[in-house]
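[agent] plan:
  1. take the single chain provided in the ticket
  2. run structure prediction with default settings
  3. attach structure tokens to the ticket
  4. add a short note for the reviewer (M.T.)
[agent] executing step 1
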Amino acid sequence: MNYDLVVIGGGPAGLAAAISARRKGIKDILIIERDRELGGILNQCIHNGFGLHLFKKELTGPEYAKCFIDEVRELNIDYKLNTFVLDIDDKKELSVINSRDGFFKIQAKAIILAMGCRERPRGAINIPGSRPSGIFTAGTAQRLINMEGYMVGKKAVILGSGDIGLIMARRLTLEGAKVEAVAEIMPYPNGLNRNIVQCLEDFNIPLLLEHTVIEIKGKDRLEGVILAKVDENRSVIRGTEKYIECDTLILSVGLIPENELSKSAGIEIDPLTFGPIVDESLETSIKGIFACGNVLHVHDLVDNVTLEAYKAGEKAAEYIKKTSKERVLKTKKVKLYPGNGIRYVLPQYVNIDDLDNNLKLFFRVNDIYRDIEILIESNGSLIKKIKKNQVFPSQMESITLDKKLLTEIDQEILINVK
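[agent] step 2 finished; step 3 output follows
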């Protein structure tokens, strides 16, 4: 079985990437989705707030997804549901399985990785205690309530102030549960400010910063948790413990790009983002394999996922159309590094001569900063300086650099907070 382009993942990134490639003239496209329907995580996100940047109006998650699902069908893009990719090799051959076709191989000219991300479970944060029922990741609780029709509990504590956790605080409250508190180990919330306001403050749900769960109580069903305050090193401050009675603990303690397939293919992974290392075309270390969306790095807005996926689809289409000789004509490569105050930067590499008119850099800071300057430097020389009133770790930042500024750079670009 042969395709020009295989897109792994039928969520917002995969759908947009496939649509973009089709618009660029690629006809032989296959989307592979492991779930029972297209749309990915958006299907369980029944709250509004999607599409504000892309469509200039508020949509629910399913409404946002439907816009792209409808277009995929209108463009006659092939897709397989309930289908799993077991392996990818560096020749872009995929090992695939489903209940209808069994095990089969697909040879692709190009592949786009759009598998999304997964939640960090309890085991990743080492909370001591027994293993009673009533402990859920935020996404699991969201799916159970919004798609399966099951209520997860009556009295809840939420650990972590990521956006899914904040949204579930509101969702549980609207379904009649009592949310006792949202605890966050960091000195700042990790979700968008609008979710802090709309999901916590509007419902008088307390947010306890610099707090974490240190013990779980209960045998068969969760009976309560012990919270404690932490210091600047995230160590528990003894004497600050307090018991909160609850039957449900929701974990919103971070997302990790879903990159088992990427690793098995031999794609180079960034230890800071946990996603593939890519260049300005979103191409990974294996030529012809591209990555976009939350499999590349965790986004805060689905609109940004879509825009990134459009670019991945466009660049994959360009790759497919190029001759083998044109593909090996790589140009001067410059590496991008996160400096002081920067958690990570994307892309990690840029081929200067392959740029269009400019390069858009994306980055996250590692703390809350106010009245700062973002400095773009190379070999000690300042390339560009941008003033910011305030920046937050929960919000993706971006800077656009003109190609003319980059042509004089020889080795590396460093981004710093000053």
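[agent] step 4 note for reviewer: The first helix runs from residue 12 to 23.
[agent] ticket updated
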